[in-house]
Design a protein that fits this description.
Elements: H1 19-29, H2 52-68, H3 84-121
Helix pairs in contact: 2-3
């Protein structure tokens, strides 16, 4: 039988220079569920990490690839344990491969259509 664990709400403050390291470590330890923070009387919202824009762009590209390749959630075994540069590089490579494969598929479909029309003309 499932038993719930008691949870507490915590606010962690510290310098921005170690913020990303702390967040990664908390995720690795799987001891803290991090949720979006909203400004309240205890703490201000703050500003995003320096690489948040790049991460956001990479995430959009990954989601576009998932949609284009029709990947279902159950099929993914991806864990974001790599650095941003490795993820960006892998995403770029996958995007190029997907584009190439889609172009090849489009050419094959065109050739099939031409063959069908030639067959029907006989």
């Amino acid at each position: 039988m499932l038993k719930p664990y008691q949870m507490s709400s915590v606010i962690i403050t510290g310098p921005n220079s170690i913020q990303e390291t702390v967040i990664k470590e908390l995720h690795n330890l799987k001891i803290l569920h991090i949720v979006e923070h909203s400004k309240n009387e205890l703490a201000d919202i703050g500003k995003p990490l320096d690489n948040a824009g790049r991460l956001s762009e990479t995430l959009v590209k990954i989601r576009a690839l998932i949609a284009a390749l029709n990947i279902k959630k159950e099929e993914t075994g991806f864990e974001a344990s790599k650095g941003l540069l490795e993820i960006e590089s892998a995403t770029k490579k996958l995007n190029q491969e997907a584009s190439s494969n889609l172009d090849e598929l489009r050419k094959t479909d065109e050739q099939i259509a031409k063959n069908q029309s030639a067959k029907n003309e006989r």
